[in-house]
Amino acid sequence: MDISKLHQNILFYQKFQFQDIDLHIFADEEKIFGVFWNFDSALEYFEGKFLFYNSSSKALLQCKQQLQEYFEGKRSKFDLQLQTFGTEFQKKAWQVLQNIEFAKSISYKEQAEILGNAKAVQAIGTANSRNPISIIIPCHRVIKSSGDFGEYAGGMERKNFLLSLEKAHSDKIVQQPEIEANI
Fold this sequence. Notes:
The protein is an alpha/beta fold. The protein has seven helices and eight strands.
């Protein structure tokens, strides 16, 4: 029985683990709704709009497989359907993130300039901090103009790990198809 057919506001949930990385993934049958570093962040983001069912779905299995490949250095892009909730500005900021190449980084200022407002650096930082789909929407690739990392919802140690991982695998990864998003 497909439990999601019983209630429109059900998301499947599973924990993904790779070495000392724990991610909390939320999806329906077709789309990824969230990849969070901690469960409390997911609760805050979803604001009680969904019931979570600790089970799997097609989208969740695909997400776990692609995250595994990413961490093993076998994937540079994700081929998943995404569903996010946010303001129009946040959605535009998150769309820019998806265009940052694997193992590359841009500054918050460059991201603001791409959106047409070089003075919106702080707003960009805030939008990126509310990114609900960590790693897949790669906000870890945005750094300060000075070269410092800046903030990251997963913490600075994880941001450094992700950037280092991508640099270490950048020469050997075959490029993957573009991401499909409904942001």
